[in-house]
Amino acid sequence: MLIREATEGDWAGVRPFFREIVAAGETFTYPLDLDADEAREWWFLAAPSRTVVAVEESGAVLGTAKMNRNHLGNGSHIASASYMVDPAHSGRGVGRALCEYSIAWARAQGYRAMQFNAVVETNVYAVRLYRDLGFELVGTVPEGFKHPKHGYVGLHVMHLALV
Fold first, then answer.
1. Which strands sit side by side in the sheet containing 2-5, from one edge to the other?
2. Which domains, ranges and CATH numbers included, belong to the chain?
3. How far is residue 37 from each of residues 14, 43, 87, measured CA to CA in Å?
4. How far apart, in whole angstroms, are the C-alpha atoms of residue 131 and residue 116?
């Protein structure tokens, strides 16, 4: 697996699983009905942010990550990131590789920490991965997310110091 900066041409490989994941409504706070252009704008970020893809040797996209500052101004020293793995390739370490990549990117960019603002508490694989990589749960917004199967569930705020 290779992780590299995403190009416009990669959108064709990202879009199908982006649409599937967002439409499921289980892990992202995105509008469920984003059209292709809106979705691309939400995910493919301009510099100094970064969007990457994890690809197989064949060029098939396995997953993607977007990395950005969490806030502007006096909060701009904290990074954030989001990840999507094609469900057809889950369980292969793609999410872990993307998360490790984003942590290294944030350190290299001089960020002091990473913060995830909205980790759905029922997304147990993501919560476990982030904890395994050193993120701490700093709080939970009760009933902050309306899950299509579990009803109202919490949204975790998770933090990792980088310095």
1. 2-5, 50-55, 61-69, 78-85, 113-120, 151-161, 136-147
2. 2-161 (3.40.630.30)
3. 13, 10, 22
4. 12
CA 16 to chain centre: 16
CA distance 1 to 86: 14
Tell me the pairing of strands 113-120 and 78-85.
parallel
Inter-axis angle of helices 124-132 and 94-108, nearest 10: 50
Q: Please state the pTM of the whole predicted model.
A: 0.94
Residues pairing with 157 in the sheet: 139
pLDDT digits (tens, 9 = 90+) for 105-163: 999 999 999 999 999 999 999 999 999 999 999 999 999 999 999 999 999 999 999 99
Helix axes 11-24, 36-43, angle to 10 degrees: 100
